[in-house]
């Protein structure tokens, strides 16, 4: 169990009891160390049941998580980039923080519809008639 809370920003704080950590053997280089010490971290966070996040942030986070989230809404982040358990733990927490910050961003403003300019309409029609002339020239020549 992760004991200390994870501070996302001034409005969002994830309590320590919401995060679950599991330490597993990491693959890759590292010699004997990699075969003996469980340095990789699996950080579990139940997005669906979290009281710390709003519904909009939960939905966005689940969309951003993709295959890292289960059908029940539990996110699993695996960190095995570093050789020490503490650095992998910090890396997993940092990646969770980045995901939630991205999910908390406000939606982009709606697109404003604009009319095409008179010049662009004229250019389009001129191009269109030019295409028609080219296609007419592809036909059989007129017999005399």
Number of helices: 4
Question: Roughly what fraction of the amino acids lie in strands?
Answer: 15-25%
CATH C-level class of the domain at 4-102 = Alpha Beta
| Mean pLDDT metric | 86
| CATH topology label of the domain at 4-102 | Double Stranded RNA Binding Domain
Unreliable parts: none
The number of E-state strands comes to 5
Q: Roughly how many Å is the radius of gyration?
A: 28 Å
Sheet/helix structural class: alpha+beta
The order of strands across the largest sheet is 3-4-5
What would the principal axes of the Cα set say about the shape? elongated
Level of helix content?
A: 25-40%
CATH architecture heading of the domain at 4-102: 2-Layer Sandwich
Could you give the order of the helices and strands?
A: EEEHEHEHH
Name the descriptors.
144 residues, alpha+beta, Double Stranded RNA Binding Domain, 3-stranded antiparallel beta sheet, two-stranded antiparallel ribbon, 5 strands, 39% helix, hydrolase, EC 3.1.1.29, Pep_chain_release_fac_I_sf, peptidyl-tRNA hydrolase activity, Aminoacyl-tRNA hydrolase
